[in-house]
Amino acid sequence: MAGTTPIWIVYASGVFTDGDGVDDFTESNAPNNGDGNNDGIPDANQPNVSSFPSAAGSYVTFKAPNGVVLQNVETIAAVANPVNAPPGWTPPPANYSLPEGVADFQLAGVPTGQSVDIEIFSSNTADVTGYAKFQDGVWFTLPSANVQVLADRVIITLVDGGVGDDDGIANGIIVDPGGIVRVTQQEQSIDFGALADQAIGEAPQALSAIATSGLAVSFATDSSSCSIDDGVLTLDNVGLCEVTASQAGDANFLPAETVTQTFVIAPPPDQTPPTVTCPAAPSFVLNDSTASISVSVTDSGSGVASPSISIAVPTNNVGLISVPVDAVDLAGNQTSTTCDVQIDYAISNFGWPLDQNRTNSWRAGTPLLIFWDIEDANGVGVSDNSASPDITSQQFSCNSDVAITEVEVASGYGPGHVYDGIWAYIFTSTRSQRGCYEIAANFNSGQTETLHIKLVQPAWSWWRYF
Predict the structure, then answer these.
(1) Per-domain boundaries in the chain
(2) Cα distance between residue 21 and residue 10, in whole Å
(3) Burial class (CB in 10 A: 0-12, 13-18, 19+), 305
């Protein structure tokens, strides 16, 4: 394969009967007395047949169909810089062995855009794997469907303007530098990186892997949780997805060892906020600095860092207040709500000197002075006018304690603050208002304190309560 010029020698006579570029003398030395294709006609007399010595020292014969003319036939030395190299020339790859070297030729008279079969007669077809082409600075082999290897010849199919035509134009001319080849397949490997865990609902993704051969990598899966279509991965179900990358090789490369990556397909991301459960009817006393509630937090999706939250309760005002509660689950979903908490006065001794826990008898028409204490959580008496209750009274059955009416049955004075959280109210009645009554003090905290009395027949010499 060495040398920088065509292999054959053109003698001084320079006779080129068939015009193929190989002189008659050279062709006359082909096998079968100058009839390399053994069709009974000297090759020098056939414009569609050309015989010449190859790089191996033996003759090779190219035969095109009748009506197609072989032109500009020459050999190219497979070295770095042959004198007749086509544009962009590089020597054949190391795994290419060309038993007849490289031949450059043109075919004229090809039916425009049609294919033609070229028969290459050679004594070196053993172990030939295909036909090597040099085109646009790149070596490659013709598709296997375009090559047929027989014992004494190799038949290749070239297409005008298509496969095997250097000029790429459907113009009735095919340009073809190449040669029969024995390709030693090289090893290749696949670089297929790990696939990250994903969740149902994520968009399909194009898979990517690189083979050292530069050939395209194919992807497949047998997993029921995912599917692959034309290299695009789709997540179908929760579970494990196993993706295998493969490269089957070609005339130049052996099949690559497959690479498999496995990842987890998780349920959809948790988008449901946690559930907050407030304690049942919590209550505290005014100005209790230690007041707090424990709120239950649950989340069936991503879970929570803690199943309960302690929330400080402001107790500077009495009544039903709403305490803000914010809870976040492990997925970052937040619930903002409120829990209702009752803030009360510390009320004691309501009705003193009467007994709040029983029905007390009292003389009708005689004023009744009742007392009670109001304090905060620290034992400090409450004297603010806002703590003054609304006093009402109603009559009820003395036998069943069932209310009869809510009309006012008596009048009174107060209530009023007496001293250090002690409050008083004077209840008055007439002698005709005998019966059982309930006196109620309704505080602005929402609390209600009651006292039951029984107004009896006046007796000027005594009064009693029980």
Answers:
(1) 24-183, 190-266, 275-344, 346-456
(2) 10
(3) exposed
